[in-house]
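A sample follows:
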Amino acid sequence: MLSALTISQAHDKLKKKEISSVELTTSCIERIESVDKKLNAVVHRNFDRALIEAKKIDTAGKFDTPLTGIPYLAKDVYCEAGIPTTACSNMLRNKDYIPPFDSTTTKRLKAAGAISIGKTNTDEFTMGASTETSCYGVTRNPWDTSRVAGGSSGGSAAAVSADEALFALGTDTGGSIRQPASFCGISGIRPTYGRTSRYGVMSMASSLDTIGPMCKSIEDLAIVLEAIAGKDMMDGTTSEKPVEPYSKLLRKDVQGLRIGLPKEYFIDGIHPDVEQCVRAATETMKSLGAKIVDISLPHTKYAVATYYILCPCEVSSNMARYDGIRYGHTPNKPKDLIDYYQRARSEGFGAEVKRRIMIGTYALSAGYYDAYYVKAQKVRTLIRKDFDDAFSKVDLILSPVSPHTAFTIGANSNDPVAMYLEDVFTIAQVMAGIPCLSVPCGYSKEGLPIGLQMMGPQWGEAGLLSAAYAYQNATEWQRKKPHVS
């Protein structure tokens, strides 16, 4: 099955003319049609356009970049001209919203010759940790369809894990690339804030949102990140710092690397299989030449509370544009303008979006701004300082991605706080704006994937990817595939 290839494997075959881009794209399309009824990972399909692009590439016969002729999927918050983009919300689904422009990321991928074949499921406007808030319904985990694929980029993770595409795009605000990557047994990276452009990607929390790839291998992550990273004049938060040739800097050893193990990430309640796999991964890194150092990140315990003040505040601001006038759902026969606004938002948004809007609006209101928002920003600075101090002593930090494996669908549906606590290991890095990734490091006794989280200093993607590449080359975890058909 050609769709099971990695990007580097497929590129090699395309260059040698052993396969064509049409054959590769067709294989992904057939795989989606075969298994996605069980998974619900792909919510929009643009197969006809993808095949036309593949034929053009085959006719040209030039596979100049590693991504030329490679089919991929994008999370349903990336704008692509002429393709429905709904953020998996009835606010936009009811309007059949089709963007007239491309996001910077999809434009750069197109320039590199990659072929978009559709959009993947996500929690509504990326608010959630399981895709259960999507208006299209939950995405199921390919390893066990009674369990979630994670969120909010659960559709992208499930699709890559099930070989529906060679890679997919996700977004990570509080762990939404790393957690689903861990749950589905693939690799995913959240780059340094400002390393990749957010232009044309629907916002949830603008100072926290980061976009990145989800792939079958660390080498593939390096290839895609290299293509999409860099300064963008359409996004003032992107850095002018040059993009390193990540794929050419990968090494198979970590000799002399100092790796920190933060005690705050090995807490009571962590699943024993998760801790065992992460500890074993640490020993593997040690055998490859790394030095293990015990460290502390003392303000980690405040990360979830801080995030769930700052994030809803930004949600409140960003969701204001969806009023049914500028964007969004149009109510039927409103009585007056006030009724129009109320019904546009109450009918268009789901429960989790409304919850975050209300929390954020309250925290930003007169009399509460200083008590909540300003104080949370001060704590965010302390969390960032923890990482700055740690990276003066170590080169890399290891931890679990999640305290457990993928949970059963519906397990946390009626408990928003329990769902928020899913982000306990993936939020502090967001506050600091540092790069971090998830790489498979084992399986539970039930056969469910477990991810290892690696964190690096700001702009340290090259070293982070290289260390993960060395680990992946020393293990076999990424080679295992789910049995879904």
Remarks:
- The chain is about 40% helix and 15% strand.
- The longest helix spans residues 369-390.
- The chain has one domain: 2-298+384-479.
